[in-house]
Amino acid sequence: MKNITILALAGGLLAVGACATPMRRDQIVTSGSLCMPVRFDIYFRENEARLTDAADQAIDAAAGVLRTCDVRSIQVVGLADATGASEANLSLSQRRARTVAQALNAAGLPSPVFDVGAAGDAGATTAGGAAEPLRRRTEVVVDAHPRR
User: Fold this and answer.
1) Which domains does the chain show, CATH number per domain?
2) Residue 8 has pLDDT above 60, yes or no
3) Phi-psi region for residue 123, left (φ > 0), alpha (ψ -120 to 50) or beta?
4) I need a labelling partner for 56 at 20 to 30 A (CA). Which of 10, 15, 62, 120 fits?
5) What pLDDT does residue 13 have?
6) CA 81 to mean position of chain CA atoms
7) Which of 7-16, 68-77, 91-100, 103-112 has the lowest mean pLDDT?
8) What is the DSSP string of 27-70?
9) What average pLDDT does the chain have?
């Protein structure tokens, strides 16, 4: 009898929930703007600081959205894997960061908001000593807001 009562109660709650007034779009979607803080990565081939076609496309797509925003800051940090000497990896990560910042600027984002840095190969290996090839990238963090 307990099972029947619980099932009846659960069924009644489902029926009441199904009859609830649906939410309006403006209650669900709080912002129609794509202008918000965002983070994305741009990947590179091993030992290269030149943008790939995919990286160019990603930068163009991001800049296309961000050009309509109030961009307050853009942090670009170049990274490198653990292959090679640390000094060479720091230089490579600096070149990667400059390449991405220049491409974003050429795509229409304002240069005064850029903070460009490099981490080299710091943190490029796991605790077990394995190399992290996904460190062949530049991290981009954009503080963007809708224009007023």
Assistant:
1) 31-146 (3.30.1330.60)
2) no
3) left
4) 120
5) 41
6) 20
7) 7-16
8) HH-------S-EEEEEE--TT--SPPHHHHHHHHHHHHHHTTEE
9) 82
Tokens of 72: 């307050």
The tokens describing 65, both together, are 């959205």
Residue linked to tokens 């918000």: 36
- By the 8 A CB rule, do 77 and 118 touch? yes
> Which token pair is 95?
């070149």
Query: Amino acid identity of 92?
Result: L
Q: Please report the pLDDT score of residue 90 as a whole number.
A: 94
Fill in the amino acid letter for 1. Answer: M
Per-residue pLDDT, 93: 96
To the nearest 10 degrees (0 to 180), the angle between helices 86-106 and 53-66 is 50
